[in-house]
Amino acid sequence: MSRFGIALALLLAAVLIAPPALTATVEDIRVWRAPDHTRLVLDVSEPLKYSTLELDNPERIVVDMINTTLKSSTDVPLTNTPIKAIRTGVRAGRNLRLVLDLTEQVRLEVFTLSATEVSGDRLVIDLFDLEPKPRIIASQPDNDVKRDIVVAIDAGHGGEDPGALGPGNIQEKKVVFAIAQELRQLFANTPGFRPVMIRTGDYYVSLAGRRKLAREAQADIFISIHADAFTNPQANGASVFALSLRGASSTTAQYLAQRENAADLVGGVTIAGKDDVLASVLTDLSMTSTLDRSMQVGSSVLGEMKNVARLHKPKVEQAGFAVLKSPDIVSILVETGFISNPTEARRLANSQYRQKMANAIFTGVKDYFYSNPIAGTLVAWQKQQGGRTYTITKGDTLSGIAQRFKVSEEAIRSLNNIQGSRILVGQTLVIPRA
Ligand SMILES: [Zn+2]
User: Fold this and answer.
1) Model confidence over 189-222: pLDDT tens digits?
2) Cα(166) to centroid of ligand 1, in Å?
3) Rounded to the nearest whole angstrom, what is the distance from the C-alpha of residue 307 to the centroid of ligand 1?
4) How close is the Cα of 287 to the center of ligand 1, in Å?
5) Surrounding residues of ion ligand 1, Cβ less than 5 A
6) Residue 41: what are its φ and ψ, rounded to 5°?
7) CA distances in angstroms from 298 to 82, 325, 368, 381, listed in the order given
8) Looking at domain 386-431, which of 3.40.50.720, 1.10.1200.10, 3.10.350.10, 3.40.50.280 is its CATH number?
9) CA–centroid distance, residue 293 to ligand 1 (Å)
10) CA of 260 to the centre of ligand 1 (A)
């Protein structure tokens, strides 16, 4: 057949087999509420074309999806969101119209996300609050020279991004949030430390957004908590990572950093979430000193973790994790285990194990700051006054501890900012000189 003949045959075949028009379907609708925005995610069968319209009086948003049909219920929980109701209709016989009736004005951002390992194609509708509720930021009075060390605790993933999935449908985002909450409680119980949760619920925060929140909270340290999957289900062990400005320290480290950096693709980065600091960060000289300290705190945490978990590697590993790229905040990423490993998934599902893991991270970080106190903090002042520390165990009383160290209860109370005689298991006290 001639070249022209082949082309003609192909054209005829295309005309004969082509469906009348491609039709996308909306298969599911999910909603996530974050402190400053509401995210509506539509799972669609294939990439679709859409247009949006914002109307007021009353406030509403219209999204028209070309050649699309609805296969999902629109009955989704709308509590705490500015959405009053979701209505749908068919336009021009083939387009799907989605109308969101709102209780207040919002800033709208609509974009599509391509299919990934864990999700299919999606249409994301973000409704940003016009007056964001003020976040509780760990700002401290200027006259207080004994400030707290601010610990930013970052539970990885969240919302649209479940993170890694383990056997029995265990989700990384849930496991790490539980560990983060345990860790928050431990720091909250410890005078001289102030925990700040980077995400406070089940919603996605971009990797750059996490660093920004840590900076806004004036964090002294940023701890990102994960429990990732590996291609080989045999892979096991906990690890601690710091940033690498060059290559990764192992192929596993490189693999995990790539996975983590892809979180924005799954979780959805909005137009405003573009990472502009990255390039300048890498040339910043302060990065080197921050990195040194990150390695030290990482070693301290790893030293504690070996008591509760098998370690993947006996030293702090390094790779180009985007979430760790704060030039001035000591940052580590803790992989609490491989959720893809059936034994570790079972452990991570157990609340006692999660508590032990949180305790190991807490002790490692706390010990680091007691050994390397930051000037102007309560911890630094306590070190000057006493130096010895004691961690409260079950059955301890303030009077018992005072007797044991031959100091007065009052001296312990004032050194540790304790009112009354209530002490908590796991709390670290600095013991004044006798
Ligand atoms: Zn992760």
Assistant:
1) 888 999 999 999 999 999 999 999 999 999 999 9
2) 12
3) 22
4) 23
5) 156, 163, 226, 228
6) -120, 125
7) 42, 15, 9, 24
8) 3.10.350.10
9) 23
10) 6
Query: What pLDDT was estimated at residue 300?
Result: 97
Query: What residues in the chain have per-residue pLDDT under 50?
Result: 14-16, 18-20, 142-143, 271-274, 279
Cα 158 to Cα 182: distance, rounded to the nearest angstrom: 17
pLDDT score of 15: 47
Both structure tokens of 72: 């999902």
Tokens 């022209």 belong to which residue?
Answer: 4
Pairing label, strands 24-33, 68-70: parallel
Distance 194 CA to ligand 1 centre (A): 24
Domain 149-371 sits in CATH at 3.40.630.40
Using CB atoms within 10 Å of the CB of residue 134, give its burial: 0 to 12 exposed, 13 to 18 middle, 19+ buried. exposed
Q: Give the distance (Å) from ligand 1 centre to CA of residue 429.
A: 34
Cα of 155 from ligand 1 centre, angstroms = 9
